[in-house]
Design goal:
This protein is an alpha/beta fold. The chain is built from 13 helices and 12 strands. It has 2 domains: 130 residues, Alpha-Beta Complex (Aspartate Aminotransferase, domain 1); 222 residues, Aspartate Aminotransferase, domain 2, CATH 3.40.640.10. The structure holds pyridoxal-5'-phosphate.
């Protein structure tokens, strides 16, 4: 099978290998928060285990969690969402895959704006589909236009993937921009997979908007993917969500019943606590956001001060995506040499459909960010 391994996990693995060998590595590769899961969420899971919640759960998730998810989406302005439209899966990644598998038949085209999250094209190919990328670079804030989307749509197009806030760029579409893209998709009669895994990780006062909230028609055509990993520092729990029309949610639940069966039962009780004690959850998220924001500014200013690097101010997720074309190396060579010479791990842009860029995650300590910036500046000055 011709499926590329995830390059983000590969860099992280290499950095961990060097660290294990005693090297002082500054890792900007990881796509996961460095905080622990909030205590009350862990306690709810431990209690579920103690109560014997150790058996299979219904394939689409425990009913209380699906109800809580439906309430969350109604609160976000998506009218009438029911628990039957919400599915809990073993990770946002798996939710994306289920969404793609549920609607893509062999030969169908899927429009993917680049820079994209590494797994989208591979998932489309696994479903027999054909990824069609459209590119938006730093000069346009990494955001594709409605005209670009319209042009990319052919009679074979079945879906467009929108990921805001974005991995790898941190870019966040405004409500107006999202609405314009949604209208193009609706006119063409294609699905939108809206990957909102970073929906709560926002800075500079920007707001998150779900395309499914724009109209009844949009709610029918948008498959909203999200999860607990990034928001609540629960990456290892493997808990994702999906919300779609009743017909698609049913198809997704069937797919899940034939593949993973269900997301881990006792883990779902931890997620339920996060949903039911929302004020506590948001207070925990706010605490993490303040730290992320401080690091974001520190990394941004440090990168912008290095000659040859151009770095836009990202307003979401926990990534910066600077352009390094002026430094004269391909991103892959740049990342390999940087790791070799200075023990700094970054993810080269090629895997995100964006050669000439690199992704740095600031989900790491202030100390690593400062030390990493010094090393990066030294490395770049030698190239210049
Ligand atoms: C854009 C995007 N979507 C989905 C995921 C999946 O997250 P998880 O499977 O950990 O819930 C990630 C994780 O890196 C991501 O960056």
């Amino acid at each position: 099978m011709n499926i590329a391994p995830s390059p983000t996990l590969a860099v992280d693995a290499k950095a961990k290998e060097l660290k294990a060998a005693g090297e002082d590595v500054c890792g900007f590769g990881a796509g996961e928060p460095d905080f622990d899961t909030p205590e009350f969420i862990k306690e709810a899971c431990v209690q579920a285990l103690a109560e014997g919640k150790t058996k299979y759960a219904p394939a689409p998730g425990i009913p209380a969690l699906r109800e809580a998810l439906a309430a969350k989406y109604r609160n976000q302005g998506i009218e009438g969402v029911t628990a039957a439209q919400c599915v809990v899966s073993p990770g946002g990644k798996y939710s994306c895959y289920l969404a793609i598998l549920a609607v893509i038949s062999p030969g169908d085209e899927v429009v993917i704006p680049a820079p994209y999250w590494v797994s989208y094209p591979e998932m489309v190919k696994l479903a027999g589909g054909v990824p069609k990328t459209i590119f938006a670079g730093q000069e346009v804030g990494f955001k594709v236009t409605p005209a670009q989307l319209r042009e990319a749509i052919t009679p074979k197009t079945r879906m467009v993937i929108i990921n805001s806030p974005s991995n790898p760029t941190g870019a966040v579409y405004t409500a107006e921009e999202l609405q314009a893209l949604t209208e193009v998709a609706l006119e063409a009669g294609i699905y939108i997979m809206s990957d909102e895994i970073y929906e709560y990780l926002l800075y500079d006062g920007v707001q998150h908007v779900s395309p499914a909230s724009f109209s009844k028609e949009a709610a029918e055509s948008v498959i909203t993917v999200a999860g607990f990993s990034k928001t609540f520092s629960m990456t290892g729990w493997r808990l994702g969500t999906l919300m779609a029309s009743p017909a698609i949610a049913k198809a997704v639940a069937s797919l899940q019943s034939q593949t993973s069966s269900n997301a881990t039962t006792f883990a779902q009780y931890g997620a339920l606590a996060a949903m039911e004690q929302w004020d506590k959850s948001m207070a925990a998220v706010q605490g993490m956001l303040e730290v992320f924001d401080r690091r974001r500014i520190c990394l941004l200013e440090g990168l912008q001060a290095i000659e040859g690097i151009e770095c836009p101010r990202a307003q979401g997720a926990f990534y910066l995506f600077p352009n390094i074309e002026k430094l004269g190396l391909s991103a892959a060579d740049f990342a390999a040499r940087l790791l070799e010479d200075e023990k700094v791990a970054v993810v080269p842009g090629e895997g995100f459909g964006a050669p000439g860029y690199m992704r740095l995650s600031y989900a790491t300590s202030d100390e690593v960010i400062k030390k990493g910036l010094e090393r990066l500046a030294r490395f770049c000055s030698k190239l210049g």
